[in-house]
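Fig. S4 source data, part A: sequence.
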Amino acid sequence: MQATRLTLICHARTVAQKLARFPVDEPLELDWQAQALSRAAEIGPGTRVLCGPELRTRQSAALFSADCVVEQALRDCACGAWQGLSIDEVQAQQPEALQAWLADPQWAPPGGESVAQLCQRTAHWLEDMAQRPGRWLAVTHPLVLRAVLLTVLQAPLCSFNLIDVEPLSRLDLSHAGRWRLRLDRRS
């Protein structure tokens, strides 16, 4: 059985992240290139590159390969009516709804996707990736990385908000019968 090696990288920083806003399809911040280019050197030849459909993931993935394949399963968690609003605005306008979303993985923002739905979507994607041996790089979003990590570790959904994912964070996984988290030493 040939192994699947999967590296997930969070897209580079956006203005929405900096302002603690629920994202829209915004471009990357202007100072993102130097950080992202330094990460590009860590990806080996022959690695196939996937990304979410949003502009920020496509821009980040383009630093690794001109032949990025967009995967809908890597899209950001849909935030529905909260798209473009800051956390403070949602707290001021809908405090109970925000608390419900933070406390209950089954609860979704109006017109959006719940954490449970996001985790289910990413679990299905991981099942598919397990059948695709070789080296893969997937550029996606902080919430998708959280969902993947919960799935691989078989952690409860209530752990979702205990994970912080910074821009350009990297998660290495391997699959040869089951998904395993790969920790390595960088010099």
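Fig. S4 source data, part B ends here. The first strand starts at residue 4 and ends at 10.
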